[in-house]
Write a structure and sequence with these properties.
Length: 211
């Protein structure tokens, strides 16, 4: 675990997150091409993430290792350790297994036969909340979330997420920064939350459009 106040490490984590975000944007069109021919917009988020992680590893542009399905050990009621949960992928930092840049991935605006489901609430409840409770990135100052926007309407997905964040009682939202979108680029924004343990965590969100 980080020594001292985790906020002192925030600038270092922020720099790594920015480098990872650039690498993700570059790898995105390459990694999804094989999937589009297989299942189209119904492709499951795990398949998308696997291809994205493979692209990031091949790029060799990042410090540390990209580890998919990063397993977290947790004690059960009898204080016996087991794999409690898995993070979609992490960028490792140094040799301490408790120090990493975590990334959780969720689909948004998913077209089904009957209608398109926004899944903004699920993004917050089943993804973002895990950082606030300490299930993921416990004690760390920063983490990431990726939204795979399956109808490519990234601005609409962003608007729905802003509403879901304001309505949620689960994520202890302290602040949110929503920079103006840049045409042709992923939507990026940052939220800050008070965790159950009392520390703050920043979460950098990137919304990627499925072409």
């Amino acid at each position: 675990m980080l020594a001292g106040d985790p906020r002192q490490w925030l600038a270092h984590f922020t720099s790594l997150e920015q480098r990872l975000a650039v690498a993700i944007e570059a790898a995105w069109p390459i990694c999804i091409a094989p999937l589009q021919a297989v299942k189209g917009t119904m492709t499951h988020e795990d398949y998308i993430t696997n291809h994205l992680v493979a692209g990031l590893i091949r790029s060799k542009t990042l410090p540390g290792r990209i580890v998919p399905q990063y397993a977290l050990l947790a004690p059960n009621a009898q204080q016996l350790f087991h794999v409690g949960s898995k993070i979609d992928f992490v960028l490792t930092i140094g040799d301490d297994e408790d120090v990493y840049l975590a990334c959780e991935c969720k689909r948004l605006n998913v077209p089904y036969k009957a209608k398109t489901r926004a899944l903004a609430y699920e993004y917050v409840r089943d993804g973002l909340t895990r950082f606030v409770t300490g299930q993921y990135a416990n004690g760390l100052p920063l983490s990431m979330m990726l939204g795979y926007v399956m109808d490519a309407q990234v601005t609409l997905a962003h608007d729905r997420l802003k509403k879901a964040l304001k309505r949620s009682k689960l994520v202890n939202l302290k602040s949110a920064v929503h920079p103006p979108p840049i045409a042709g680029r992923p939507v990026r924004f940052i939220t800050t939350h008070q965790c159950a343990a009392g520390n703050d965590i920043e979460v950098c969100h990137t919304l990627l459009g499925w072409p």
